[in-house]
Design goal:
The complex is a heterodimer. By secondary structure, chain A is mainly alpha-helical. In chain A, 74% of the residues lie in helices and 0% in strands. Chain A has a single domain, classed as MetI-like fold (Orthogonal Bundle). In chain A, helix 3 packs parallel to helix 7, helix 3 crosses helix 10 and helix 7 runs antiparallel to helix 10. Chain B is built from nine helices and nine strands. In chain B, helix 2 runs antiparallel to helix 9 and helix 3 runs parallel beside helix 4. The relative contact order of chain B is 0.20. The chains are: A mainly alpha, B alpha/beta. At the A-B interface, helix 12 of A face helix 3 and strand 6 of B.
Chain lengths: 260, 246
């Protein structure tokens, strides 16, 4: 890239634009209790939330991989009627307010929900459980994985698959032995994005799964609750989330996330 | 092009309020979520006689609101569901001499018809009862723990909701079997929930203070809403919603 001198107007507006994002972070850093940082992060409430958040976000990523990679494959390879509509519906949570997602989950899988009643009858309850929190996180985070993997599938060189097929491999073997290894970078990038989004999930979780330390109170919920009584804990937990997000963006920027 | 034009019109409208219409002043009221319905009605009644005032309500847990105010949120009035959160704002030098304008009591909210046959606080500890409380950081949650403590009941809620209205919603949606809320919440939910009384000896009285926030745009005008709330008309509306005398 050739470096250029920007027009004054562009430079000024860009400066304001950058400050808009950097100032809030500076505010957090300014208020952070550096002297007691470690003590705040190792309070039982912080540790509980940290542990739960990692369990929930990793489980959500696992679930998204299991269901999202096949979905991406179908979107990239199968032409069927209504594909665009289905794809739009399944990626809707990317722009849907998460609280709306939580309400929708409640009306589907809640105790009085469309499918929740049947689940309840066989003794499965999702709201107020860790699995409910995992579902909420998967709901908002999986679309990031699906779209990233779909893009990978569309841009890959399909001649390798054709070659494998002419050599007698069946469709499942081709997918497993040829396609998956070829799109591994996209799958990895999608999984990391999905994990980061799951880690930050708030609205759908608090609406659908509730808020109980150790069961459904993930990091963002703990930040929200602690802000009123233990702002130091809230700030330190926020910084943890911030550091993780920043690390992901910086590490993946050049290698995988050219589009972002 | 039309978009730009529309944007320009909006900006112009923001910049220069028309002079011909009488000036309407906004008074922003930060109020405990349990006051949602009562304040909406009281506000309507108040603005009937104070036509040049527009009340803007921001309802939330008293603790959230107190945190927002101490961090510079532009509230003109703060109505808290407890003394502690009002004190936080007073201690920060942002409000003076709060005035108690109402009180409230607790009740157990259950599904209509009380299918789980919950008779009192002791039943909330039953393993087959899905109980939801407000978080211990918000007044309703603290009061609930106080009442359970008085009754010697150790309850295990499945969720600590961010404010008392969230507790009510979980019960009215049928996700929870029971929740401890204010008497006024049960009343405002109408047929969607039923209330189970808590006996006097376990009861907790919540007192609601209100104060003008320092740096209010028009403290005189804000003050007028407080005067209205403690007037016979204001008290009647609060009583209609189940609040008790201060």
């Amino acid at each position: 890239m050739r470096s250029e001198r920007p027009p004054l107007v562009l430079a000024a507006l860009a400066g304001v634009g950058a400050a808009f994002f950097i100032l809030p972070l500076a505010g957090l850093l300014y208020r952070a209790p550096w002297q007691t940082a470690l003590a705040e992060l190792t309070t039982p409430e912080a540790l509980t939330a940290l542990r739960l958040s990692f369990v929930v976000s990793l489980a959500a990523t696992g679930l998204a991989l299991l269901l999202g990679v096949p979905l991406a494959w179908i979107y990239a390879r199968v032409r069927f009627r209504g594909r665009d509509v289905v794809r739009a519906l399944t990626t809707l949570p990317m722009i849907l307010p998460p609280v709306v997602g939580g309400v929708a989950l409640l009306f589907a899988f809640g105790r009085r929900g469309l499918f929740g009643q049947a689940l309840d009858a066989i003794g499965i309850r999702l709201p107020f459980t860790t699995f409910g929190a995992i579902l909420a996180a998967t709901f908002v985070a999986m679309p990031f994985l699906v779209l990233t993997v779909e893009a990978g599938l569309r841009s890959m060189d399909r001649r390798y698959e054709d070659a494998a097929r002419t050599l007698g491999a069946d469709r499942w073997t081709v997918f497993r032995r040829v396609t998956l290894p070829l799109i591994a970078p996209s799958v990895f990038a999608g999984a990391v994005l999905c994990w980061a989004r799951a880690l930050g999930e708030f609205g759908a979780t608090i609406t659908f799964a509730g808020n109980l330390p150790g069961t459904t109170q993930t990091l963002p919920l703990a930040v929200y609750i602690a802000l009123e009584t233990r702002p130091e804990v809230a700030i330190m937990l926020s910084l943890v989330l911030l550091a993780i997000s920043l690390a992901i963006l910086v590490a993946m920027r050049d290698r995988y996330l050219r589009a972002f | 092009m039309r978009g730009i034009l529309a944007l320009g019109l909006v900006l112009a409208a923001c910049a220069a309020p028309s002079r011909t219409e009488p000036q309407v002043e906004d008074v922003t009221v930060f109020a405990a979520s349990s006051l949602t319905d009562a304040f909406a009605r009281a506000g309507d009644d108040f603005t009937k006689t104070n036509t040049r005032v527009r009340l803007l309500f921001d309802f939330g847990s008293s603790s959230t609101l107190a945190t927002q105010i101490t961090n510079g949120a532009p509230a003109d009035l703060f109505a808290s569901a407890d003394g502690a959160n009002m004190q936080k704002v007073v201690d920060a030098g942002l409000a003076k001499s709060p005035q108690t304008f109402a009180s409230n009591q607790l009740q157990i909210a259950v599904a209509p018809g009380n299918p789980k046959r919950i008779a009192g606080l002791a039943d909330l500890a039953r393993p087959d009862v899905v109980l939801v409380l407000a978080a211990p950081t918000v007044p309703a949650g603290r009061y609930a723990l106080e009442a359970l403590g008085k009754a010697g009941v150790t309850a295990r809620p499945v969720s600590q909701e961010v404010d008392v209205r969230a507790v009510l919603n979980k019960v009215s949606l049928g996700e929870a079997d029971a929740g401890i809320v204010y008497v006024t919440d049960v009343r405002s939910a109408g047929a969607r929930v039923a209330g189970v009384a808590i006996p006097e000896q376990h009861q907790v009285v919540a007192r609601y203070p209100i104060a003008v926030v320092k740096d209010a745009k028009d403290p005189e005008l804000a003050r007028r809403f407080i005067d209205y709330l403690v007037s016979p008309e204001g008290q009647k509306i609060l009583a209609d919603f189940g609040f008790s005398k201060p």
